[in-house]
Amino acid sequence: MEKIRQNQEILESEIKLRIQHILSQAFDNLSSYDPVNMREGQRSIESLMAEICLGGKPGLKEFCELQDGFELNIATQLITCLERLLGKDTNHPISSHICHTLELLQGSLLLHPASRSLFSRHINMNILLDLLEPQSEPEVHIATLATLVAALVDNWDNVRVFESLNGLASVASLMKSKNSTQKVKLKVAEFLYFYLIPEPTFSGPIINKKLNIRRSTEEKELMLAKYLHNVRSLVKDLQELTPFGEL
């Protein structure tokens, strides 16, 4: 029995070392200003997360243990990468890098939900909201909206931060813009269905009264109605079609 335990510990240690090696190299490439190196870093992270999702080695347990720390946290590195990309001209090649980075960020937040807490910081949430500006490519708008869902799901503190930074106004402006493509408007509608879901009653210790607020669909409808005129129809669809199950 002791031998089995020791073998298991050795295996877990080897898995962690392999993840550390992959991520260290990937982060070095990701921080490069050379697009080729950056793409290589993105692909390494993508391959690692795909391997975990398929249930192979390295394992999810070891991966999450490493993600709990700062040094090898994928979401942290990807947010930094987005911040750097935002400082460049949003031409097509840069937009492609932004979209790929956002897709990886979605995956990292779903694999390691604790990383969502990074978006309780205004500076990180603002990076996503900046990507919703009109000058961004439609593909960037779509990828950003999907990333917002991954950052907000089951994290109501993040939802409050999103609201406080006028996130609803940013999203609504995409819906109202004549320049938004049909695909972007469809993605906005999907996001708003998600946003309008009623939140569970808060039962934990009150640390920050501004963040520990839980809103009903009706309350969210009133907030969203400041920026859009057809919110009632969205709420009606949400209640009748139940796209997320019974609410």
UniProtKB/TrEMBL annotation:
SUPFAM superfamilies in the record: ARM repeat
Pfam families from the UniProt entry: CDC14 (PF08045)
Annotated protein name in UniProt: Cell division control protein 14
